[in-house]
Specification:
Strand content: 5-15%
CATH class: Alpha Beta
Order of helices and strands: EHHEHEHEHHEEH
Largest sheet: 6 strands, parallel
Bound molecules: 3-methylbut-3-enyl trihydrogen diphosphate, magnesium ion
Number of strands: 6
Number of helices: 7
Shape: globular
CATH architecture: 3-Layer(aba) Sandwich
Strand order of the largest sheet: 3-4-2-1-5-6
Structural class: alpha/beta
Length: 235
């Protein structure tokens, strides 16, 4: 079982288009899917779930879609926060919060504050997040803290990255059929197992999750080493 699952929740727009509905309709259903997937992950003993909700490049979308997505944050927090908090979920938000509206910032702060002492699944929402932004902001904060070139290491820089509160993802899932990372966790995915599915995000369910986990279970993770086969005679 992976400890940490990271998901690029893609395909909301196409899902809506197939129903002759506006893209924001797909995002609304996508939000319901995230809430179900949080339960599915918790039920399977997954400790960390990180979801890509809004990328630093998603500002390029039409104003109507961007404001629809921002509004969904407010709707989602008011509709689901109490329940998630009661279920022990600890919520973290990562991304550049300086660029979002005061209302959205407050909603994220509230979600983090209310769940900070929870000990269940840690849900990290990547919002106005980009993997390159993450590495740059980590370097900036390390420099501001007086970390010298000599002290800078993979380990010391990791402490400033947005996912410092979690181990690296074990399993990366992307729905929606595209086979790319789209500036998600560039540093942290170094040794993740990748799983791609054509399933559009609003259709992603427990069966799809089990398929991804089964694929993960069948992978041989070597981390650059060699696997020693117990049945093979060693010279
Ligand atoms: C992913 O779905 C959700 C966000 C980027 C917010 P898309 O909106 O990218 O859906 P498609 O890829 O256009 O179908
Ligand atoms: C990635 O999906 C971002 C999120 C799921 C939030 P996009 O739909 O924005 O990615 P591209 O544009 O297809 O690479
Ligand atoms: Mg997309």
């Amino acid at each position: 079982m992976p400890r940490h699952v990271a998901i690029v929740m893609d395909g909301n727009g196409r899902w809506a288009r197939r129903r002759f509905m506006p893209r924001v309709f797909g995002h609304k259903f996508g939000m319901e899917t995230v809430v179900r997937v949080i339960d599915d992950c918790a039920a399977r003993g997954i400790e960390y779930l990180t979801v890509y909700a809004f990328s630093s490049e998603n500002w390029k979308r039409p104003d109507e879609e961007v404001s629809g997505l921002m509004n969904l944050v407010l709707v989602g927090v008011s509709k689901y926060l109490t329940r998630l908090a009661k279920n022990g979920v600890r919520i973290k938000v990562m991304g550049d919060r300086s660029a979002v509206s005061e209302k959205v910032r407050q909603a994220w702060n509230e979600a983090e504050e209310l769940t900070r002492d929870n000990r269940g699944l840690t849900l990290t929402v990547a919002f106005n997040y980009g993997g390159r932004w993450d590495i740059v902001q980590a370097c900036k904060r390390a420099l501001a803290d007086g970390v010298s070139a000599a002290d800078l290491s993979e380990e010391s820089l990791s402490r400033y990255l947005a996912l410092a509160h979690a181990p690296d993802p074990d399993l990366f899932i992307r729905t929606g059929g595209e086979v790319r990372v789209s500036n998600f966790l560039l540093w942290q995915l170094a040794y993740a197992e990748f799983y791609f599915t054509d399933c559009l995000w609003p259709d992603f369910d427990a069966t799809e999750m089990d398929r991804a986990i089964a694929a993960f279970a069948g992978r041989d993770r070597r981390f650059g080493g060699v696997k020693t086969d117990p049945n093979e005679a060693t010279a």
